[in-house]
Amino acid sequence: MHGSIVQRVAMAAALIATGCGEIFFECPATETSDTQGLPDRLSETGLFTSSGALQPGVFSYTPRYQLWTDGATKRRWAYLPPGESIDTSNADSWRFPVGTKFWKEFARDGMPVETRLLERIGPGPGDWVGASYVWTTSDDAIAEPLGVIDPNCSGHDVPAAGECTACHGGRSSYVLGFSAIQLAFEGQDGQLDLADTAALGWIPPPANPVIELPGNSNAQAALGYLHANCGHCHNRERPRETAICFAPNNPLDLWLRTGELSAVEATPTYRTAIPRYIVPGAPGDSLLINRMSRRTFIYGMPPL
Fold it and tell me: What secondary structure does DSSP assign to the chain, as a single string?
């Protein structure tokens, strides 16, 4: 059996060009063997103990700028093998050691629907494996590599494992919400920020534990939103070797970089979006705003 219903919809839209120059490609079909090395149950992945507490070495975090998820609430956790650290030589594209794990839980109306696992299984740029665990009881969740449409009438669709690369494959680090910019603020108690991550020995002590984006509060919010929601696809450093099922064919670069934050005009977002995709003072004439305001599959952004 190849792929989930979500994947089949994506396949039906293969190679449909849109007005903004994007092209939809077929996501790789998911086989159960693709996730064969992962446990069948969330309780076996190393996230929680039998009592429901976090396993030793697992820590909660919340990115400064979060991915829009249509009303779902989220919790996130990170784990590095003991004694390992993150290569931060490229401040804008961290490299994680083999054995790194990230989890993200999606909940609707206070009830967990799915928990996604992303694990680095080898040293190569694409040596990551991901899967979604769907909650069937209040005690555990079951791996569903083919995805599930609207589990338990939650109004939430669970993606197939093959669709992970649609977003994560757009960056060489593969991890999107755990980075210098996303952690460089004073996090809430119990949530890792940049200083906490350094205290664990996961990264070197940062020169700037708090990184402010340029501009006023509106500009900062817009830059952060586009970075978190669009930059992993729309950026100039997309790895060629990583299989992906969506590739923008336009010059937009919405991924923020730590060395390009001296002014709003210095960001790649400003340089590549204005005036072609964002018309200053005219949101109704701005293609980028129009596309991200739609909910349709073909003309809405993001496409998945």
Answer: ----HHHHHHHHTTT-B-TTS-EE-PPPPP-GGGGTTS-SBGGGTTSB-TTSPBPTTEEEB--SS----TT-EEEEEEE--TT---B-SSTTS-BPPTT-EEEEEEEETTEEEEEEEEEE-SSSTT-EEEEEEEESSSS-EEE-TT-BSSGGG-S-PBPPGGGHHHHHTTSTT---SSSHHHH-S-PPTTSB-HHHHHHTTSSPPPS-SS-PPSSSHHHHHHHHHHHHHTTTTSSTT--SSS--SEE--S-------TTS-SSGGGSHHHHHHTTTT--TT-GGG-HHHHHHT---TTTSSS--
Class of residue 218 by CB neighbours under 10 A (exposed 0-12, middle 13-18, buried 19+): exposed
> Which of 3, 30, 302, 5 has the alpha carbon at shortest distance from 149?
5
Burial class (CB in 10 A: 0-12, 13-18, 19+), 25: middle
Where do we find the tokens 């952004």? 301
- Beta carbons of 77 and 58 less than 8 angstroms apart: yes
List pLDDT tens digits, range 19-49: 444 444 556 665 544 676 899 999 999 999 9
Round to whole Å and give the CA distance between 87 and 100. 12
Ranges in the chain, pLDDT < 70: 1-34, 36, 241-245, 297
Query: Among 34, 42, 37, which residue's Cα sits nearest to residue 116?
Result: 42
Given this model, what pLDDT does residue 149 score?
92
Give the Cα separation of 111 and 19 in Å (integer). 39
Q: What's residue 2's pLDDT?
A: 39
